[in-house]
What we know:
Oligomer: heterodimer
Strand content of chain B: 15-25%
CATH architecture of the largest domain in chain A: Orthogonal Bundle
Number of strands of chain A: 0
Order of helices and strands of chain B: EEEHEEHEHHHHHEHEHEEHHHEEH
CATH class of the domain at 24-104 and 231-344 in chain B: Alpha Beta
Amino acid sequence: MGRYVVRRLLQAIPVLLGTTFLIFTLVYWLPGDPIQALAGDRAVDPVFRATMREMFHLDDPLVVQYGYYIQGIFSGDFGTTFRGLPVSTIFEGKFQITLNLAMTALVIEAIVGIGLGLVAALRRGKATDTAILAFTLLLVSIPTLVSGFVLQLVLGLQLKTSTGIDFFPVAGTSAGWRSYLLPGIVLAGTSIAYLTRLTRTSLMETLRADYVRTAIAKGMPRRRVLGRHALRNSLIPLVTYLGADLGALMSGAVITETIFNLNGIGRQLVDSVYLSENSVVVGIVTVLVLIFIAANLIVDLLYAVLDPRIRYE
Amino acid sequence: MKNPSVDTHLLPADSGTIGTEPLLAVDNLHVEFTTRQGVARAVNGVSYSLNAGETLAVLGESGSGKSVTAQAIMGILDMPPARIPKGEIRFRGTDLLQLSEAQRSQIRGQQIAMIFQDALSALNPVFTVGWQIAEMFRVHKGMSKKAAYAKAIELMDRVRIPAARQRVNDYPHQFSGGMRQRIMIAMSIALDPEVLIADEPTTALDVTVQAQIMELLAELQRESNMGLILITHDLGVVADVADKIAVMYGGRIVENAPVHDIYGNAAHPYTKGLLESIPRVDMKGQELYAIKGLPPNLLDMPTGCAFHPRCPFRQDNCVTDVPALHEISGTRSSACHYWREVLDGTAG
């Protein structure tokens, strides 16, 4: 098990090199001059321009620039922005906010998605099942931009005005974990729909399995047949989905962060692309890749817990 | 092994007051499945009975209704699509079909237990075999985890799994096919059921292992005097362990007989065909006999006798008239209009 984890972490190195190089190249090809971007519409002093280009190795070939960057990464240095701030200072607190948001969304997604999926599977073909399936269709059809503002207005403002209690703070992070509830719901929306459908299919398939029939033949109560014998087996594909979805939630948080005024990395990423702050863009992507790799590793380790037929040595 | 108990399988439908009620009696059972293509009549009026210590072999090819009947007894049919429009299943005189689901799950596993064909898929892959056996004691008897595991080890010893104590925490995939079927058996006999239904328990196993498993079942039956329903299509298995045989075709019983009467002396053309299709060493080099044609389509059963399209002795009335189960002797019956001729060998 320990050796497996080490091997997986070593495998992450080429993945990290590949993804960072890809992003680095893409950012390199982006139109616009980062030095000009510092000055806005005014002309830039040629001496200043030359000094900056020299300092940030902008005149070196792509591969050499990448070499400087990756050297920094391996010594824990994410580089400096063109405005002179260390990139790590810009990251401060922002990853935490996005991670909090994504985790909140993941928890909401898991509870609601698996719950609805279970109900739908057990009521297969009945009105409840049809209603849940229709609801998931609705969820995927509504863009975050719409659901975000509507929920902010209804659950945030109107509920607060009519009851006098601030159930769901609509902006910022000042209310602690409650600040993440509403944006979490909005961010989880589409994923809830997919997870519901996945749970429904997975459980329906498990319920047809021979070992479920055996459990019934053993005289086990229905609750136990479902909760112990069937559920554990149908959880395996769901864990895969949830693990992969954590990365998707983190990188997809831009719109939600903007609507709810959360100062996370999603917004920072968009801003940095506009400002041609290449080192920030590549830095954010690098960290996202790391989180993605970690999430996938955790999923693979969870497999072994859920399914004894899978063993790592 | 042959039990000299009174044979009661021909008792009339309301036998509650006549003679002794058998341990288990299936009476005029009908099961149908609603499908997109129509209603499939899987079981059409099956009756059989079983006494304590007795072994009934139910013989027939796939789709003959033998497994569906067993699942109806266990109450593990998916309803819907399955439906039981008619019939009774009496266990110790009580019609199981009239009981509530809660009452039935008290009988299931505790008084009537079942072994399935493929132990690998019938055992839950994510729990240890010990957990799965111990579950019987924990749920039904409320035993502590420790006591239940001790019982599980005891049972694994009893079905002769080597090093049971070390293997109790292994998972099903870590066992061989024969050992897995032993686990399945251990689980089914855990609470000393009175009736054990074995649905093709040896089909998925090697021939040598098949014999061991059948021997084990017969031995367990002797020790505890359970009634055993052995569902199979393997006539070789039947000869060794069964007391009586019920041959099924197209959802009906076509022949009932004590096991020693049926070999070489079938009273139904289908049974005759089955017996002739057993490979024999002295017939080496000759073409193997096979019953011509295909099993009937349950959605569109042939008129008259269901076997008539495949029957070598077919007469005109076979196409139009459904044969009744004719009584041949106290213990034998055949659902063939021409059972006398089949028995004498003068048919056709």
